[in-house]
Structures are given as C-alpha cells and as structure tokens.
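Page 42, continued from yesterday. The earlier attempt failed because a stray header line got pasted into the input along with the sequence. Redoing it now with the clean sequence only.
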Amino acid sequence: MQISESQEQSKLRRAPMDDGGMDTANAIDILTKQHREVEALFAELQGQEKVPSKTKQKVFEKLAEKIELHTKLEEKIFYPQAKPLDTDTVLEAFEEHDGVKALLKKLKATKPADESFDAKISVLKEMIQHHVEEEEGELFPTCEAELDPEAFDAMGMKMQEMMARSGSSAARTNGRGKGKTKANRKH
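This time it went through. Structure tokens are written below.
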C-alpha cells in the first residue's frame, strides 16, 4: 500500500508515545491502530506461499472480528461527528462498509481451501486499503483541523467502552492512545 506524504505526516502527529502509559483514549489513534492491525493480518494471510487452511481460517476469523468491530465504531461513534465536516467522504465510507460486510459474509461461507478464498481475500484487502487511504489522507486530517481535541477524547472513551462491551479479542488488544492530535498540540 502506497502512503502519501500527508498521510505519513498525519500518522506522525498522532503516533502515541511508547512510554507504557495509556492515559486517554483518542478516537483517531484507536482507528489508526486498528488499521495497522488489519494490515498485519492481511500480511499474515498473504505473506506465505502456502498457508495451511486451518491457519488461514483462524487468521481470517480474527481479521473479520477486527473489521466488524472497527466498522461498528466508525458508524456509531466517529462518522456522526465527521459527517457535518465531510459529508461526501462519510457517505462514501458507509457504502464501502456495506461492500466490505457483503464480502465478509461471502468469505465466512467459503472454506480457506476453496480456490476462490484467496481471490476474495485480495479483493477485501484492496477495498480496505482504499478505505484506509481516504480516511487517513482526507477524513482524519479534516476532523483534526475542525474538531475540538476534547471531541477526540470523548469519542475515544465511547469506543473503549464499546470495545470492552464487545468482549472481542480486538478490544483486548487495542490500547489507549495518548490523545495527541494536531489539534491537541496547538494548545
């Protein structure tokens, strides 16, 4: 996946400090961290020539769980705040989510040994990459410029609560960011 300079700068602004402390949840940090986790799972699925079917199934289940939780967080918490700032991108994101959900449903009905499984995974990866590029390259920077820093922390806290309620492994592995966005650093 090709990352633009503005995306890279945006990631650097939001990168949580690795001091072991996790004091405030920040919505963009949480979503960005989930993007990286999903990318790592795609790499695990596609990184080897011959991944055993049993391993593929386990990795896919983890991937599907993370994607489903991520879309829920965005749709219920982040997008309602972002929509007034960039309606077109948010509406497009909802449509992309619908496409991803439909493909996940097909993948769940497909055995990893099926010849179409890898092709479906490749298409899913492309859909997710496009979605991530638009969020990190357009939507997140717009929100950082327009929303108050407290809004990111409030959304992040709601996301943490939703992840905890879900009981998913995605919730257990998702740490809290440092709450440092471009907007926070101005003050």
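Notes: The two ends are 33 Å apart (CA to CA).
Reminder to self: strip header lines before submitting.
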